[in-house]
Amino acid sequence: MKFTTCTSFEPHNHRRSLMNYSRWHILLIAVLSFSLLTTSTVSAATTTNAKKYKWAKPAVEFMASHGVMQSYEQEADRLNRTVSKAELTQMIHTLFKEFRVEPDKQIEIPGVPEGSTYYSIFRDVYGSIPSNPSGMISAADQINYQNYTFTYLPTKELSRWDLLMALNALFPETGNHLDELNDKKALLNMKSFKDIPIKSFSSSEDYEKWDLAHQLLSAQFGLIQQKKQKPYIGSELDYVKIRALLNFSEAGIMKPDSKGKFYPNQKVTLAETTVILQRIYSFYGGKGYKHQPTIDELIPRELTREYVYGNSSLGSLISDNVALVSMDNISTAYLAISATEPVDLKVIVNGESITYPYERLNVLDAPIMIAFDGADYAEVYPILRRTGKPIIDQGEIEGPDFFEKLDLFFYFSGKWTDFSVFNTLWEDEGDGGFE
Question: Which InterPro entries does this one have (predicted)?
């Protein structure tokens, strides 16, 4: 019997086989090792984040229960990431279902055109800002108050300050005070935030030249300190920023640390954002956010607001229809008028109307009483007696000089006042009010 020797058993082929096997084996081991290493690294990172952001776990689980996020374990490796404007908007849109507009309502969102992936959620959320349409600018990402233009940037990574300003625009009822914040109180509170600079100017003209004047998204305050005068806040936008800081801080939603540092320019993380949104949800009673219209929002836009206080008397030249707004919870307003010819007043409170003749209204030392009867304001419509037309209509007929000739002046107060004395003080001092 003849045997054929297999060449695979030849020594040099045997070594080649071993070499080929070894390379394959080594490659397999390397691939498996890399896979295990990668898995181990990701697992380690997730574990590290899970430990580092344990303080955010209740908020993440809350968000998961409301369909905003996944479980804490699934989200752990993302919690240290920054948050874009689009991500914030999506979270708010999912959590606060009250932010909705009619499906067919077209709202222009500068920076987010209708064809954009983000348009629908931006339209719902920012189109629902209580003070819209003018209020939409206050939640934007680029703002120019000089020409009133603004842009939303969905991909912008948000700082803590960006987040604060956006939330302040969306949730204006957050906080319990500061509706009236005078310069002294504002200055004291400004100084309590150690890492938010205060820049002083010697005049309002110098303030206006400042490149950060009227900049809502700048974490700085402007202060005007003229010689021999008390300092005062640079602009209304500085007040907006101060109110936002104090209201959100005192509500426990966004606070400075124990050293008074707010870290306004620090990028906000997903962990922080999650906790902050849960705090807002809880602030409104755990039932989501429901905007409660302010008095100003309830008053028809065509009425000029005149605010009636309990302990002061005021006067004003009038060339329009008026809303006398009850402040300090007063129940009665005292009113008198003067003019160069008879003007009657139609007064409406809670839908009930009464017309007062000029002869009664012009008795300055015995003003009429207007009971608010639980209403926040009274509508007042001046009517020119000789034509029977509202003065604003008569002004359109006779031209601008009509109002100057009419010289219609309102005197009003939340307490009984002898307005004949007030009139003397007005002429002597050129002051609109006295205590």
Answer: SLH_dom (IPR001119)
Please state, in angstroms and as integers, the Cα–Cα distance from residue 308 to each residue in 93, 227, 327, following that order: 39, 33, 6
Q: Show pLDDT as tens, one digit a residue, over the chain (435 residues).
A: 443 434 343 444 444 444 445 555 555 455 455 555 554 444 555 567 778 899 999 999 999 999 999 999 999 999 999 999 999 999 999 999 989 998 888 899 999 999 999 999 999 999 998 776 668 999 999 999 888 899 999 999 999 999 999 999 999 877 655 445 566 777 777 888 999 999 999 998 999 999 888 899 999 999 898 888 888 888 888 888 988 998 899 899 999 999 999 999 999 999 999 999 999 999 887 766 665 666 766 788 788 889 898 888 888 888 899 999 998 788 999 999 999 999 999 999 998 999 999 999 999 999 999 999 889 999 999 999 999 999 999 999 999 899 999 999 999 999 999 998 865 544 444 444 433
Whole-Å CA distances, 362 to 87, 223, 369, 419, 425: 60, 43, 13, 10, 17
Whether 274 contacts 60, CB under 8 Å: yes
Terminal CA-CA length for the chain: 133
Half-sphere exposure of 211 (CA within 13 A, CB side): 0
**Residue 200, beta-bridge partner list:** 223
Helix axis angle, 270-283 relative to 160-170, nearest 10°?
Answer: 20
The answer to whether 327 touches 414, Cβ cutoff 8 Å, is: yes
Q: Are 327 and 307 in contact (CB under 8 A)?
A: yes
Residues 371, 331 contacting (CB under 8 angstroms): yes
Tokens read off for 407: 């010289």
Return the H-helix or E-strand segment holding 142.
strand 142-144
Beta carbons within 8 Å of 115's beta carbon, 6+ residues apart: none
Neighbour count for residue 301 (Cβ, 10 Å): 6
Interatomic CA distance for residues 312 and 334, integer angstroms: 11
In 3D space, the residue among 256, 271, 214, 260 whose CA is nearest the CA of residue 238 turns out to be: 214
Cβ proximity of 119 and 106 under 8 Å: no
For 10, residues 6+ apart whose C-beta sits below 8 A from its C-beta are none
Taking alpha carbons only, the member of 357, 303, 335 closest to residue 416 is 335
